[in-house]
Structures are given as structure tokens and as C-alpha cells.
Amino acid sequence: MVTCFVLDASVAAAWLFDDEDNPRANAALERLETELALVPQLWHLEVRSALIGAERRGRMRADEVDECLRRIEELPVETDTKLNVGVSFALARAHRLSIYDATYLELALRADAPLATLDKTQAAAAVAEGRMLVEALDGLV
Hints:
56% of the residues lie in helices and 11% in strands.
């Protein structure tokens, strides 16, 4: 049985931008060597939104963005298509999350998987809902 975790777009973005080194993001990247990452369909849009924003602001050149897209496509991720919008909405309401962040939490709950995120509010909501977080070796960062 393959173990898995839910991968938030904030973590993937940290991998792609050289100036956003983060121990929690690095821990999630290391887990991809032996585990599968689950992502909602929204993840693909959020990662690409971060990249196109970086290109437009001059933070990355077009060829660098294209290389990041190639790297993203090579990641061992499985895209979930069974979103429960009602549960996502209830989680967003209960924990004051964006509906987007609640979507990742809904998937983590449904898949009974830990969540890798850099968003503190989303992480607190996950813990409140009984989800484990993907952490750096030295604990919560």
C-alpha cells in the first residue's frame, strides 16, 4: 500500500522559488521520494497562477517558468476529482478559511492523510480537525 499526503500549493510554490526555502516544504519534498502526493484539481491552477504572477512581476523569466512547469509535471502527484463542495464550504465557514484552502483540508480528511501546507490558518484548522501535518524534522516551523 502506497502512503500519501495532501500537498497544498503553498508548499509547491516554495520549491519553485529560490528565495522561499522552507524546512516544512523541504520535508514534504523529501516525502515525495517514497510517498504519493494527493492534490485537488485546484492545485494545478494555483501553482500555475503563482508562476505566471512571478513571470509578470519579473521575478522569473519565461524559460525559468517553463522549467518549473516541467518539474511540476514530473512530481508523483495524483489529482483527486471527488471534491465534496458542501464539506469544503462547512470547513471554510468553521475555520475561517478560503474555500480554496478548505478544499485541501476536505481532501486530507476524506483521504485520511496528513496535510503539507505553509499556511498557518489552514494548518491550525487541520490540527483542529484531527489531521496530522507534514513537518520538518525539527518540528513545527
